[in-house]
Structures are given as C-alpha cells and as structure tokens.
Amino acid sequence: MIQFKRLDHILVCIPEGTTAQARHFYGSQLELEEIPGNHPAGAIWFQMGDIQLHLREEAGGNYSKRHPAFEVVDLQSAKQELESKGITLEYSSEIDGRDRFFFRDPFDNRIELLEFCP
C-alpha cells in the first residue's frame, strides 16, 4: 500500500506564449514567491505554503472544472484580496466543515481556496 504524505506540487498548463502573463498573475497579483531555476520544459515554479505550483506552456486547452484546491488560513481575507484586484470569484455547492470559493487565472484554470471551519 502506498502511504501518501502530502501534496508536493501541482502542474497547471497555460497556453503557448503566455509565460510572462502567468508570471505577472501568479507573482504580482497573487504575490507568490517564484522559485528560480532552469525547470523542465520551460516551466515556472512558485511556492504556495508547503507545496509548489508549476506552470508550463502547452498547446490546446479547454474550459474545465478541474482544479487544484488550496487550504488557506483566512478565507475572508483571501476573498477580499482577490476582489480588490478585480478577480472574479465563483461559488459552488456547500461542503460541511469547510468554506470555499473558486476563481480562474487568465488562462481559465479553475482554482479553489478553502478554509476548514468548526
């Protein structure tokens, strides 16, 4: 049996020719720390808490509900921060024991932020 410990990283695909736009959105607007290096296939990497977010250009694309979900310390503050930057929030079905919302990056990748509640 494989014993999984934690999420290490997530790879999100972006359209070809949009690395600079991705670097601006994730680095400047979401204020994530970029991990320097010569990463595989020209990917850019960011640190998000104790996991990494990897972004790599890829041909094609589709508007999907697939997404990574990230637990945050203060969901309300995250909501206010994103809204203050003009980022549209989406809501979905409720889940007992957690609050959550979604947003999309400039490439239509869906991202969920959540906070566990008592």
Helix-and-strand structural type: alpha/beta
Shape: globular
**Beta-strand content estimate:** 25-35%
User: So how many helices?
Assistant: 2
Q: What is the level-2 CATH architecture name?
A: Roll
Low-confidence stretches at least 5 residues in length (pLDDT < 50)?
none
* SSE pattern, N- to C-terminal: EHEEEEHEEE
**CATH fold topology:** 2,3-Dihydroxybiphenyl 1,2-Dioxygenase, domain 1
Domain VOC: 6-116
Protein name: Phage portal protein
InterPro entries: Glyas_Bleomycin-R_OHBP_Dase, Glyas_Fos-R_dOase_dom, VOC_core
Describe this structure in words.
- With 118 residues, the chain is an alpha/beta fold.
- The protein has one domain (9-59, 66-116): 2,3-Dihydroxybiphenyl 1,2-Dioxygenase, domain 1.
- Helix content is 18%, strand content 34%.
- It is built from 2 helices and 8 strands, in the order βαββββαβββ.
- A 4-stranded mixed beta sheet has the order 1-4-3-2, covered by helices on one side. A 4-stranded mixed beta sheet has the order 5-8-7-6.
- A hairpin with a 7-residue loop joins β6 and β7.
- The longest helix is centred in the N-terminal third of the chain and has 11 residues, at 19-29.
- The relative contact order is 0.21.
